[in-house]
Amino acid sequence: MKTYMKMSRLYAPTLKEDPAEAELASHRLLLRAGYIRKEAAGLYTYLPLAWRSIRKIEQICREEEDAIGAQEMMTPILADGELWHQSGRWDDYGPELMRITDRHDRQFVLGPTHEETYTALVRDELRSYKQLPVTLYHIQDKFRDELRPRFGLMRGREFIMKDAYSFSADQESLQQCYDEQKGAYARFCARCGLRALPVAADTGQIGGDTSVEYMALAEAGEAELVYCEDCGFAADTEAATAVCEVTEGIAGELTRVETPGVATIADLAQLMGVSESATRKAIALVDGDKKPWVVIVPGDHEVNDVKAGHVFGDYHMMTDEELVEYGLHKGFMGPVGLPAGVSCAADIALKDSEWWLVGANEEGYHLQSAKPGRDFEVGKWVDVITAKPGDACPHCGKPLAGARGIECGQVFQLGTKYSEAMGATFMDVDGKEKPLIMGCYGIGISRTLAAVVEQHHDDAGIIFPVPVAPYEVTVVALDVKGEVLEKATEIAQRLADAGLDVILDDRKERPGVKFAEADLMGFPYQVVIGKRGLKAGAAEVKDRATGEREDVALDELVDRLTSLVVPARNGLLQE
Length: 575
Ligand code: ATP
Ligand code: MG
Known about the structure:
Blueprint: E1 5-6, H1 25-32, E2 36-40, E3 43-46, H2 48-67, E4 71-72, E5 78-80, H3 81-87, H4 89-92, E6 98-101, E7 107-110, H5 115-123, E8 134-143, E9 158-168, H6 171-191, E10 196-203, E11 209-217, E12 223-227, E13 234-236, E14 255-258, H7 265-272, E15 280-286, E16 292-298, H8 305-312, E17 316-317, H9 320-325, E18 343-347, E19 356-359, E20 365-370, E21 380-382, E22 401-415, H10 417-422, E23 425-427, E24 433-435, E25 437-444, H11 445-455, E26 457-458, E27 461-462, E28 473-477, H12 482-497, E29 502-505, H13 511-521, E30 525-529, H14 531-535, E31 538-543, E32 549-553, H15 557-568
Parallel strand pairs: 1-29, 4-8, 16-18, 18-21, 28-29, 28-30
Antiparallel strand pairs: 2-3, 5-7, 6-7, 8-9, 9-25, 10-11, 11-22, 12-13, 12-22, 14-20, 15-16, 15-17, 19-20, 22-25, 23-24, 26-27, 30-31, 31-32
Helix pairs in contact: 1-11, 2-6, 2-11
Bound molecules: adenosine-5'-triphosphate (ATP) and magnesium ion (MG).
């Protein structure tokens, strides 16, 4: 028989004050409401309320994985260091990898992710194409010695992850496993009550994506995104190709204009009476092969470090000394008449633009009506600017919106990276030995709890979506003796009998304290039982999310709450 929990017995020590160390709402509220406690930097204990939510998040994840035929299992958390040497990651992973030596001087790692373990597991047993595809997963603690563990559950050094690994015989089968995982991830987010966007983390050579991150939209997110409300395109500003409206300069003869004292694009735009997008910004860098470049971009966009790294390798921006050395003039650089040896590159956003307003490579002067092909040549067209809200969607052309995101999950097409390194092969239908084709798929279960709280809270506390709430209903007894407590207890049991997750606030506390803590802890529905209501044969039901209250007759309470809670258990999906 299902029963209810008594708040008088609950271990959920709340804090009166906001904890000073918590910057983010999720961190602050999970501490204050008695959900988590810190053991050391990046190490948190999940107290009973948090653990109930975590188990619900895990269960949603499990159901979605099982629904696409992935099989749950469990491996050790400690992984054999030898396998990490085989894959090459013992050396490549860096200081985030937590390494351990046992009493016999054998090396182990506390798994930050488990590609090695799974590849080694199947390499001796998945031997024939007939056994493929297979997807295996587990939900367990992962360890990463993060440089900056912070924001509570958001970036821990020990955290809970679901990680799945698929093994296929060919690319088509991998694509199918991967697409199924993407479906599962979208449903997982929606069922947890998260507004999340799938964001292409990179794009494959053949078109299509080979890795997607699931980003819960929240101000607190570390990722900066652009997305299209119209067609659903979304990308990290660091990965997106910016399709921006570029304003044309003035058509005509190349004209030298005096621009003394102009130090910035804003100065130039103001002096010339044009918008910043009508100007062309020039930055100077030295690429990984020590070759100097002047790179021209639209005046209103920034060069992105990650994207520039893809093009120019281990580059650096020129220092003032280097500018002088190469004969360049800070604030007055441009593509026309570059000093010998300095090459010109330009962002592809400018490819169709004919008339440029640029620096003259001469102190105090700019050039009006510089025309590519006539006045100068662009040596290399590159994709280096950061996309920003207002740029056009590369798919449908509508203006992009901006948002920040929390990465809750990521899917990858790995291909044969691990199977080749670790000798995991199978016999294909043509009788040939081939490396297994792999995908890997991770969800941050504990980070998802933090993301849910980031998206669902107000000044009074957490507002849990029903599917991941530790308790769906709290029955608040305004009096803890006599008829009120008796009735509240009976109602709590009847609600539990109906299958709801119920907690009964039976504590000897003032009503004000009970209401405040019910709000803080974020239970979706509060049922208030008091003397006055009982006289009228009713209880008040408060919806935590909307703040709406309704009086419900005592004998209709179970039906009413069931009708509120049960449909909501599917999360956003039902909308
Ligand atoms: P990040 O870029 O945030 O460091 P990641 O891309 O390195 O994360 P993955 O290797 O893709 O992380 O791991 C899968 C998932 O595990 C992530 O999408 C995230 O939800 C979660 N995760 C990763 N690192 C942490 C951490 N330090 N604390 C909590 N969750 C984490
Ligand atoms: Mg990731």
